[in-house]
Design brief:
Layout lengths: L9 H10 L3 E7 L7 H9 L2 E2 L4 E15 L5 E7 L3 E4 L5 E5 L5 E7 L8 E2 L6 H14 L1
Antiparallel strand pairs: 1-7, 2-8, 3-4, 3-5, 3-6, 3-7
């Protein structure tokens, strides 16, 4: 994706239309830009899940999403300018900055945003059960 021209990027526009991403905002994670920076960084790094997909598009900077594989081992996903990721509802994950300590990201949602994170363990939520079922089926 063309992060330098995200406001007019036809590819982003098509993704938003096709996936019904009707709501978006932009967050800058940097000590000089994010209120309660230290607290937020710790919160982002706590292993958690959401009941909705988490969609992030990196407009500038870089960082890492860590997710669990089917054997519950960490997989680190490097994210940099121009990358977009969709973390499915129910997947345990966390986010951290890299050595640059800066990322600017677009957050996309279907409908109104829901910010609630459920720290592990959160295995009783239907979204988690559905994700685990998906993993089991994919492994067959």
């Amino acid at each position: 994706l063309d992060a330098d021209n995200y406001e007019t990027d036809p590819c982003l526009k098509e993704i938003r239309r096709a996936e019904n991403y009707s709501w978006m905002d932009i967050v800058t994670i940097h000590k000089d830009k994010l209120p309660n920076y230290e607290e937020k960084i710790k919160t982002f790094y706590e292993e958690h899940l959401h009941l909705d997909d988490e969609i992030r598009y990196i407009l500038d900077g870089s960082g890492y999403f860590d997710v669990r594989d089917k054997d519950d081992k960490w997989i680190r996903i490097s994210m940099e300018k121009g990358d977009m990721i969709t973390l499915p509802a129910g997947i345990y994950h966390r986010f951290t900055l890299d050595e640059n300590n800066y990322v600017k990201a677009m957050r996309l949602f279907v409908g109104e945003p829901v910010w609630t994170a459920y720290n592990r363990p959160a295995d009783d939520f239907p979204a988690r059960k559905q994700y685990v079922k998906f993993l089991a089926e994919a492994a067959q």
